[in-house]
Design brief:
By secondary structure, the chain is α+β, with helices and mostly antiparallel strands. The protein is about 40% helix and about 25% strand. The protein is extended and about 80 Å long.
């Protein structure tokens, strides 16, 4: 098999596994999955906000998931471990899943969006944008956006740090789409001004004293003498 076909097949299988886990573990706050091949099999790490729901009672859910990955997706000897998300409110996929589940429970879309904005902002996010599309209030589909904080969306350095997630959910009105853009804390922006205190400015203006060893001074003097001789 050509090498490029192998990588295409592997990436397609990873996308299928991620889509399957997103549907099966949405109540557990599923975020992402990492797969690594080892000599003993395939190591799979699932990141979720509620690891207990992924593991199940006495590990039954993990055993069932292992069997499905092995038989349905052809994963060789899967070894599954679950990792806890440190800040689920700062994960775009978790936030979008929580909004989708709130809509399924009958909560108004504006209330669900403002609730998610408040939680992510309190968690320390610099900026959040939530967009909900579908038949929100009439038979005609439209969308509404909700923004909070500072959220630039242009520039390569910004897009590398921006967290984006899109989730679809089926309701009685029809298919709804939820997209979340989230800027995590402690992110450096190239266009953000830096405010310095007076002491820092004074330290920058202070001339730097350069000291040289006696041997270096002799070399500098020799070079100066040679330069003066050449000019003469």
């Amino acid at each position: 098999m050509p090498i490029h076909k192998y990588f295409v097949r592997e990436n397609a299988r990873k996308a299928e596994i991620d889509e399957y886990l997103s549907q099966e573990l949405k109540r557990a706050g599923y975020s992402r999955v990492e797969t690594t091949k080892t000599p003993l099999g395939t190591r799979i790490v699932i990141y979720a906000a509620k690891p207990g729901l992924v593991i199940g009672r006495r590990g039954q859910s993990i055993r069932d998931l292992t069997k499905i990955l092995e038989e349905r997706f052809g994963v060789e000897n899967p070894q599954i471990s679950v990792a806890t998300l440190e800040a689920p409110e700062l994960d775009a996929k978790v936030v979008a899943s929580q909004i989708a589940m709130a809509l399924q429970r009958g909560i108004h879309f504006r209330r669900a969006a403002y609730w998610a904005l408040q939680r992510t902002t309190e968690a320390g996010a610099l900026g959040v944008e939530i967009c909900i599309r579908g038949k929100l209030s009439t038979d005609r589909a439209r969308y509404e956006k909700y923004r909070s904080g500072y959220l630039p969306v242009v520039g390569e350095s910004i897009l590398k740090q921006l967290r984006v997630a899109v989730i679809d959910t089926q309701l009685k009105q029809g298919l709804f789409g939820i997209s979340v853009k989230l800027m995590p804390p402690n992110v450096s922006f190239p266009d953000k001004p830096v405010i310095r205190s007076e002491s820092e400015v004074a330290a920058l203006r202070k001339p730097v004293e350069v000291t040289a060893e006696p041997a270096e001074i002799e070399k500098i003097e020799e070079v100066a003498e040679v330069t003066d001789t050449a000019k003469a």
